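Weekly modeling sync, notes
Attendees: S.R. (lead), two postdocs, one rotation student

Agenda item 3: backlog of single-chain predictions. S.R. asked that every request posted to the team notebook include the full sequence so nobody has to chase files. The rotation student volunteered to paste the first one in as an example of the format we agreed on. Action items at the bottom.

Example entry:
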Amino acid sequence: MGEEESKKVVGDEKVEETATATATATTTKDVSDEKPVIPVSDEKAIVAVATPAVEPEKKKLSGGSIDRDAELVRLEQEKKLALVKAWEENEKTKAENKACKKLSTIQTWENSKKANIEAELKKIEEQLEKKKAEYAEKMKNKVAEIHKLAEEKKAIIEAQKGEQLLKAEECAAKYRAIGQPPKKFLGCF
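Predicted structure, as returned to the notebook:
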């Protein structure tokens, strides 16, 4: 019985090899059937070269438990790599979000500080405008007071001038009445 089983196993291997060879021959025929050669016209002297399509190598699926184990190891590796890539993307996204949040906080802080300084500047400008208006009012009052004093002094001088003119007219009338010239006609002589 042991010999019959070994013959069956050897026979199965031959059947598998034959099936694989037939499948390879079929795929080769299919490739040549799919790519027709374009006929060359007599007008052009260009030679058409047909290149066979490169197909990715298919792995044997009938390799047994060794191939299955290798495939499982490869799948585990791909799974680990996918998890690492997902973790990396997640960490990058976290870092970007954290940086964006901090930048936003800094921008908000900067804007509030600028607003405070502008408000303070505006307040100082208003105070300066108020002081300027007060000083302008004081200066106008001083100018008005000076003008008033000047008018008063002018009025006093005009009054003194009027008194002196009146006095001179009275003296002249007196001298005319007496008929004598004034004693101090020219004071420099």
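Discussion: group reviewed the output briefly. The radius of gyration is 61 Å.
Action items: rotation student to repeat for the remaining queue; S.R. to check formatting next week.
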